[in-house]
């Protein structure tokens, strides 16, 4: 038996977003039983990169696939691993923070990077969105070398990058999304993820996007399977 653990934040209009992005969700009631309609229906307006979401290669790589073009198996991870790399305001995460976890990274097909920055998400949403940590481009490259099985990386920060360093933010995404590579390798990036410590017990993670034709990525509901304690 397994137990399920949700690693996504609920989508809402008020959720923290990358500076300048639209809200994670605009929700409008179209039909309402309270108004006398026979059913309740809603109009949903979502942005592909607000809330817990996935960056697929096409986000930055014009030659890479978008979410709806990838097989469903690409979003299933059989060897998830969580590492803790605490990072504060406007700090960078380099190889020196990752190297002590090399053995764990080598096993992972999904690396969950717990920075602890998400502690500010509910109480200081503007600071959480604008001042968080950044994975350095050279550290992203090191992960590809150290993690031969790596197909996905998840962070509890608003992004694997940061708005206060645009150049390196773009470079890090390019490295992970396979820009300039000839072997076709890329890593899916999951951002604004609810990485609770219990996720370290995950035996499998399912992280499917919405398969919307023409969309580069989308919000995701990420579910981790944990062994039943009973």
Report on the architecture of this protein.
By secondary structure, this protein is α/β, with parallel strands linked by helices. The protein has one domain: 3-Layer(bba) Sandwich (Glucose Oxidase, domain 1), CATH 3.50.30.50. 16% of the residues lie in helices and 27% in strands. The strands form three sheets. Strands 1, 4, 5, 6, 8, 10, 11, 12 and 13 form a nine-stranded mixed beta sheet that branches. Strands 2-3 form a two-stranded antiparallel sheet. Strands 7-9 form a two-stranded parallel ribbon. Helix 4 packs parallel to helix 5. The chain is globular and about 60 Å long. The N and C termini lie close together (9 Å). The relative contact order is 0.25. The model has no long low-confidence stretch (mean pLDDT 96).
Major sheet: 9 strands, mixed
Would you give the CATH topology?
A: Glucose Oxidase, domain 1
Number of strands: 13
CATH class: Alpha Beta
CATH architecture level-2 label? 3-Layer(bba) Sandwich
Strand content: 25-35%
Radius of gyration: 18 Å
Helix content: 10-25%
- Report the total helices: 5
Mean pLDDT: 96
Whole-number total of structural domains = 1
Which blocks of ≥5 consecutive residues have pLDDT under 50?
none
- What structural class results from the helix and strand content? alpha/beta
What is the string of SSEs from the N terminus onward? EEEEEEEHHEHEHEHEEE
Distance between the termini: 9 Å
Shape: globular
Q: Give the CATH superfamily.
A: Putative cyclase
């Amino acid at each position: 038996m397994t137990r399920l653990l949700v690693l996504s934040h609920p989508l809402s209009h008020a959720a923290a977003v990358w500076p300048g992005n639209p809200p994670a969700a605009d929700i409008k009631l179209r039909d309402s039983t309270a108004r006398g309609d026979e059913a309740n229906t809603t109009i949903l307006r979502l942005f592909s990169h607000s809330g817990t979401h996935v960056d697929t290669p096409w986000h930055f790589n014009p030659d890479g696939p978008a979410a709806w073009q990838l097989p469903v198996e690409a979003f299933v991870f059989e060897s998830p691993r969580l590492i803790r790399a605490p990072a504060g305001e406007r700090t960078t995460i380099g190889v020196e923070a990752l190297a002590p976890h090399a053995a764990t990274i080598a096993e992972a097909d999904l690396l969950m990077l717990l920075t602890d920055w998400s502690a500010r998400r509910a109480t200081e949403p503007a600071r959480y969105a604008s001042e968080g940590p950044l994975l350095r481009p050279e550290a992203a490259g090191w992960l590809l070398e150290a993690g031969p099985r790596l197909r996905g990386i998840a962070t509890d920060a608003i992004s694997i990058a940061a708005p206060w360093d645009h150049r390196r933010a773009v470079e890090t995404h390019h490295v992970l999304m396979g820009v300039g590579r000839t072997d076709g390798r890329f890593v899916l990036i999951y951002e604004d993820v609810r990485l609770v410590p219990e996720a370290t017990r995950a035996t499998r993670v399912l992280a499917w996007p919405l398969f919307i034709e023409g969309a580069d990525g989308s919000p995701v509901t990420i579910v981790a399977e944990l062994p039943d304690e009973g």
